[in-house]
Amino acid sequence: REQASDPPGEQAPAADLPDSDSLRELVHELRTPLNAIIGFGEIIDGQYLGPAHQPYRERAGEIVRQARRLLVAVEDLDFTAKLQSSRHPASQSAEWSQIFPPIRAALLAEAARRGVELEITVRAGGQRCLLPPEVADRLIRRLGEAVVSNAAPGEHLQMIVDRVGRYLAVAFDRPASSLPADGAPSGTSDLDFALRLIRGLAMITGGSL
Question: What gap in Å lies between CA 13 and CA 206, rounded to an integer?
């Protein structure tokens, strides 16, 4: 399971990340060529400028998929830059009961689309979330989508929301595709890539993954 919470009684380490201006500059330098790559790949894959051989189209399609994956990381960097520069005050917090329903609906819809059985169990949830709603939504939705997208059709996964000390913990089963035969995380799957991005965003908010 991947659990997003601080250990009770411990302070999360401060994030060692570039300042918001540097992040914004990096986002601009990455987003522009990625969008160009995606557009060109879609032209080839869709044969908009004329017929293309199947292997060429398949390669273009894979390039588009990988570029979109990187674009998600770039969008997270952009979100992080905005978060760093604004430093949302605690007054923008919200009740968990207001934050969670749209996240739950989105994850169940994504699981159904991929043919994955996602079981969501909520054992706690009356607390007030100190993060701004958009931050909490992005963190948990990103984590859930990463898990579901790496699961095989027909696979059964659990998502559990529970209380751990003073904290509200969100836990997911890890998809079988991301584990080698000995059951230890491989560190090289698409899920691991996504988890590293989510971990960085969590650190910006003063949390940990």
Answer: 7
Q: How many CB atoms lie within 10 A of CB 177?
A: 13
- Complete DSSP assignment for 32-90: HHHHHHHHHHHHHHTTTTS---HHHHHHHHHHHHHHHHHHHHHHHHHHHHHHHHH---G
Q: What are 105's two structure tokens?
A: 């609906």
Q: What is the DSSP string of 115-156?
A: T-EEEEEES---SEESS-HHHHHHHHHHHHHHHHHTSPTT-E
Q: Residue 189 carries which DSSP code?
A: S
Q: Is 3 helix (H, G, I), strand (E, B) or coil?
A: strand
Residues 115-135 pLDDT 10s: 999 999 998 767 788 777 888
Residue 64, phi then psi, degrees to nearest 5: -60, -45
- Amino acid making up residue 153: P
CA atoms within 13 A on the CB side of 172: 24
Does pTM top 0.70 for this prediction? no
Residue with tokens 């059964």: 156
